[in-house]
Structure prediction request, 56 residues.
Amino acid sequence: MGYERLAGNPAATLISVCEALGVQPPSADDVRPGVAALSDEISLDWMRRYRLDAAV
Prediction:
């Protein structure tokens, strides 16, 4: 599992995690992520700046 899978299909990921834990999953029909996927120009700039700083 990864962020892309979670962001792409949170309901299916929730069910998969619950099954792996051996617990009854909640109704996944109502699952709505609290945040949007972060993949815009701002986050790309943050990654670029982090990589520059981390290289020091």
Notes: The CA atoms of residues 47 and 53 lie 10 Å apart. The chain is about 55% helix and 0% strand.
